[in-house]
Amino acid sequence: MNATSPSLLAIKGVEHSFGGFQVLRGVSFDVPLGGLVGLIGPNGSGKTTLFNIICGFIHPLAGQVLLDGRALGSSNVVQRSRQGLVRTFQTPRVFEHLTVLENVMTGLYKCSRGGILASMFRLPLARREMLRMKDQALATCDAFGLGGIKHRLAGSLTAGARRNVELARATVSAPRVLLLDEPSSGLSQEEVDQLREQLIRINKSGLAILMVSHDMALMSIVDRAHVLSAGETIACGTMQAIHRDPQVQQVYLGL
Ligand SMILES: Nc1ncnc2c1ncn2[C@@H]1O[C@H](COP(=O)(O)OP(=O)(O)O)[C@@H](O)[C@H]1O
Ligand SMILES: [Mg+2]
Questions:
Q1: Whether the CB of 33 sits within 6 Å of ligand 1
Q2: Separation of CA 247 from chain center
Q3: Is 184 a pocket residue for ligand 1 (Cβ < 6 Å)?
Q4: Which domain covers residue 88, as residue numbers?
Q5: How far is the CA of 181 from the centre of ligand 2 (A)?
């Protein structure tokens, strides 16, 4: 992704504090259309708080988040996910008592057109909509290698398979930006390698990704990264440039 790619998601001057303790100080950066951007920094540097602000779970004390150049203002998580901003969590969140396929289908309800009344009365529109959603979810299960276990309960799956279910659910609605918070946490090395390939695949399909990760092998796939330390930006650029940055070596890599 080159520097002139148009900005899809922009974070401008974001500030936040909890109980008077400032955790984000004037953070600004962009995720371009189709970009794959990393966000790194030591524990407590404010990465998850920034994610919570981007997805509308909390609102910043100053600054703003823009999608396609429009400020998202006070819109909430559901409204932002309808606009194409979707996140995953550090610990994969799946509905344990639903099957893999049902879990993936839940990623589509927010954009379903049938409506609750229509589905309660089993109106033809709702039935057609349900079939369309099922087809879409089945195709997404196949793309994430979940086709063979689509009828298994999500509660019975390994951490790697749960992560895939979460990614499938997050991407089934064709979002515009995917926010991943520590996607490799709890995964085996083999599962991390598979995750890496999945992320490259979905990014190549046009989906922009903003990813928080401590895993340097996983971070090697990003176009560029943004480094936070104690809520402040200390570096941004390619991972090669970041590795060479003396301040990053001191506060983050501990060199
Ligand atoms: N809900 C909260 N209430 C109070 N302090 C919080 C809350 N969430 C995070 N913090 C504090 O904000 C700082 C940044 O946390 P966080 O955003 O989780 O960092 P990171 O994800 O980079 O580890 C930490 O000092 C953390 O203790
Ligand atoms: Mg965190």
A1: no
A2: 27
A3: no
A4: 7-94+175-251
A5: 7
Is residue 231 within 6 Å of ligand 1 at its C-beta?
Answer: no
Counting every residue written for the chain, the total comes to 255
Nearest CA to ligand 1 atom 18: 48
Q: Are residues 69 and 120 in the same domain?
A: no
Residue 64 placed within a domain: yes
Indicate if ligand 1 lies below 6 Å from the C-beta of 43.
yes
Q: Is 210 found in the same domain as 147?
A: no
pTM: 0.90
Q: Per residue of the chain (255 residues), what is the pLDDT tens digit?
A: 444 556 899 999 999 999 999 999 999 999 999 999 999 999 999 999 999 999 999 999 999 999 999 999 999 999 999 999 999 887 778 999 999 999 999 998 766 655 555 566 666 677 788 888 899 999 999 999 999 999 999 999 999 999 999 999 999 999 999 999 999 988 999 999 999 999 999 999 999 999 999 898 899 999 999 999 999 999 999 999 998 999 888 886 565
Task: Return the closest-CA partner of residue 38 out of 230, 178, 193, 192.
Answer: 178
